[in-house]
Amino acid sequence: MTIVQAFEQIYSVQHTPVSIASAIAKMLQEIGVQYAFGVSGGAIVPLWHALQHSSIRVLHFRHEAGAAFAATEAYFSSGIPIVLFVTTGPGITNALTGLFAARWEGAKVIFLSASTSASQRGRWACQETSTYRMPSTGIFTTESLFHYATTLESDDELPEVYCRLAKGLAQPGGFVAHLSIPTNIQSSSVRTSLPQVALSLAPAAATEETISKCARLLSQGSFAIWVGFGARDAADSILQLAEMTAAAVMCSPRGKGIFPENHPQFVGVTGFAGHTSVLTYMQKYRPQRVLVLGTRLGELTSFWNRAMIPEQGFLHIDIDPEVPGTAYPDVDTFAIQSDVGVFVKALLKHFPQRQSQSAVVLPRPKHEEINPRVQGLVRPKVLMDAIQQVIVEGSDAIVMTEAGNSLAWGNHLLQFTQPGRYRASTGFGSMGHFVTGVVGAALARNGKAVAIVGDGAMLMNSEVSTAVRYQIPAVWIILNDGCYNMCGQGLALQGFKGMDVEIPQVDFVQVACGMGADGIRVENESQIRSALEKAIASPVPFIVDVIIDPTEAVPTKGRLDSLISQGVINS
After folding, report:
1. Where are the alpha helices (DSSP H) in 428-544?
2. Would 358 be classed as within a structural domain?
3. d(CA 438, CA 450)
4. 214 closest CA partner among 352, 358, 335, 339
5. How far apart are the C-alpha atoms of 199 and 170, rounded to whole Å?
6. pLDDT (tens digit, 9 = 90+) per residue, 535-556?
7. Most buried among 123, 246, 262, 414, by the most CB within 10 A?
8. HSE-up of residue 523 (Cα within 13 Å, Cβ side)
9. pTM, two decimal places
């Protein structure tokens, strides 16, 4: 359906005047939106009401940031753009952290906010949202947060807004837009007729000459493949390329599972809580080149470690032309802007014959087995081993790890063999992302999603109540150690003593049950497996509150070394 046809439908219903709020709701339906998450307020009522009476399912959250994180993860679970709606003033500012995460992660989220009507601006309206009381640059304008942002002051602007949103959503990669609508404009009538608009978009692709050059460079010697989250839709082609060329493969933390972690050519996860087998490979079998697919090579993926530089540089493929060459600006990099899937499929044509497998046995991540003990607090390694067996291998649930020690243990110990089963944030890395994002993920996939989180994050903003309200089968596994343990261990290793990182230990099962969810507390290792099995089988939101040993050393040396190199050390 064209844009004009969509709006003609809006106008054709018995010639009844249609509000701008209703027109926007219809517009969102036509561009594929199925869910709207948010928190209501007086100034957003007309639009909230219009969404509620459309085919879009509206979910009322408890906090705007939680709704934004949930929208991000609902997008990644479904591939469908998600709407986030908030009211004026603090409704907008509360949502910003989650929206920054959406932008950094590459989600498609349309942010709808209210703003103060023109006649009330500058007069100290409640939660006034105007240039008199709030900065406009970066919030209401297209800047580093929003790919597109505007304040709708008239129905005359609807055609351009529709075109911009449709075009942004059709493009590969992320798209975060902000449409701010004054309250009086929301309820005003649509009068504008729309011109014909045609959009035709194709994914970015490298030229045949560029692809041929890449094939020649890769054929000149050994190469490795570094897989990132941006390659998640190219898993089959990457596996085929690796097996045809005998290339070693490593992945970023967000790229876990895109290439099977049990494959003999997989040398490990790079960066934060990654595997020493990667560095062993780079030092012992240093490749001439590394083919980088869909990763920014940011700090928590590479730590900008010089050991990761191949002899003759990188071939870096990314949909964003600003990414290649940024992490290692002094290293020879052949930068190619392309959709990763399109590029790898085209590259495969230049390797028609499977190369003989190398006689070299590549270094592999080591996973030691630890037997559960009868007494003592739960060791995180034992917990992760049980999660691997019961949840990763025993179900189809998405697994998410919250920023902090949860992320470290998950990156280091969990193994995935399929794309789309693991989610982590190593860019913006906000606490609270997955304690709330798990709700959106479970809803959008209509199935289990499991968040491994710390007690600190769980106390921030968990949206358990939202999951109960809509009977969303989210699961929270809480590493409950009564402190901000990553900070505590890290500070000690950096020479800082006497810092307060303690949290009064909480019984999260009681909290969850008080909201209408279910849960179980795990206080020793013999209880872990049965608790996880109960959680994964539960039809209602479920908490597994695990009392863990806070003295277990977390595999975060790379992060500490990076901080020390930046001057964070007590001298």
Report:
1. 433-445, 455-458, 464-469, 485-493, 508-515, 528-537
2. no
3. 7
4. 335
5. 9
6. 999 999 999 999 999 888 888 6
7. 414
8. 5
9. 0.91
